[in-house]
Design goal:
alpha+beta; Trna Endonuclease, Chain: A, domain 1; 5-stranded mixed β-sheet; about 25% strand
């Protein structure tokens, strides 16, 4: 039977626990007494983890045997010890599909594992088949974890020559559900109707990364964030301006470009927009008045900057109370004037003018 047509168990086992099970199943082949394709695959996998975890290069034939294999040891997804180059080496695998790290999660895993194995070399790997966002990268780099993303995972799976049904099923599932879906979505960034793909969080994120290359002038460290609204719709923003302590110690002001769905009054349809927003959390009436004063200045600067830009902007929402989030400008995506390509091409000129005028405004 053609494996592309055959039922695939991973179509029904889509969560992180199923992914943990596949990883453990593959690693367990190291204990197989004979030699076969899957034992070779297991050695190749451990060598990949060894190198990704920052322990240096190793040949698959230098991976010897499995000493320990546990799930949920010290709350890690997968922890194992393998003998590599004659040394018992620990491996922490944090396995994700669509979620992201939280609350020093990655650092805590290492701290707990070190209590039991203080002298073992330790490879720390973040294994994620879903899309890697800015928070994934920040958390991994901060905790010293090497990253295996969907492309690296698929490249490994595709390099193994085997007819094992479980292995092939997982490889086909990763190709279809992640590689092809992500690459189809990213290809849409170059198409006139690409804005229709903004309902996918990774397309929003990659679009903002492209936009940020042209809108590179910043105050404070730039940052990307993404999430979902209470209704489950994705949003993403690129912060390019951080004014610290504007409203008092610890009360900062942020300016960012944000992608989110909104109703377009022109078309009377709900679609995706790019808004320029001022965000702060004023606590007193005096702080709210100051926020509104600054908002007006931002709006004036942006209105001048966007003039004759070649893009079609809409009227921003009014804020008369000093809300936390206030709109400076907004445009709705379409297939012509405000296509993704046009926005990436033309908005940087607007950004340059806006940023320069804000920087030179003594009242800001």
């Amino acid at each position: 039977m053609n494996t592309l047509d055959a039922p695939n168990i991973f179509d029904f086992a889509t969560g992180e626990l199923s992914q943990d099970a596949f990883i453990c199943w593959l690693l367990k082949w190291l204990d197989y007494e004979g030699e076969n394709d899957m034992k070779k695959a297991a050695r190749l996998f451990v060598a990949l983890l060894f190198e990704t975890g920052g322990l240096g290069q190793v040949r698959p034939d230098e991976v010897e045997n499995l000493q320990l294999l546990k799930q949920q040891y010290a709350k890690t997804d997968v922890f194992f010890i393998a003998r590599v180059k004659g040394v018992d080496t620990g491996f922490i695998l944090e396995d994700k599909v669509h979620t992201q790290p939280h609350s020093r999660q990655l650092q805590r895993y290492e701290e707990e594992v070190r209590k039991g194995y203080p002298d073992h070399p330790l490879a720390k790997i973040y294994f994620k088949t879903g899309y890697l966002f800015a928070k994934d990268l920040r958390e991994c780099h901060g905790a010293g974890y090497g990253i295996l993303g969907y492309r690296e995972i698929y490249n490994f799976l595709n390099s193994v020559d085997t007819d094992d049904v479980i292995f092939i099923s997982y490889r086909d599932y990763i190709r279809r559900e992640f590689v092809e879906r992500f690459e189809t979505g990213l290809a849409a960034l170059q198409k006139s109707d690409g804005h229709l793909r903004l309902k996918q969080d990774f397309v929003q994120y990659e679009f903002l990364k492209s936009l940020a290359k042209g809108c590179a002038k910043t105050i404070g460290s730039p940052s990307f964030s993404n999430g979902n609204s209470t209704g489950g719709e994705p949003w993403a923003h690129y912060r390019f301006l951080l004014n610290e302590d504007v409203f008092g110690p610890g009360h900062h002001e942020r300016i960012w470009y944000r992608i989110e769905p909104r109703k377009d009054k022109r078309s009377n349809k709900r679609c995706y927009c790019l808004s320029l927003k001022q965000y702060a959390e004023p606590q007193t009436e005096e702080q709210k008045k100051l926020k509104l004063k600054r908002l007006k200045l931002y709006k004036d600067h942006f209105a001048k900057a966007r003039k004759d830009s070649g893009l079609r902007f809409s009227k921003p929402l009014a804020d008369r109370t000093g809300s936390n989030s206030s709109e400076i400008g907004i445009l709705f995506f379409d297939e012509e004037t405000n296509s993704l390509q046009q926005v990436v091409k033309l908005l940087p000129h607007v950004h340059e003018k806006f940023f320069t005028s804000v920087l030179n405004d003594q009242e800001l």
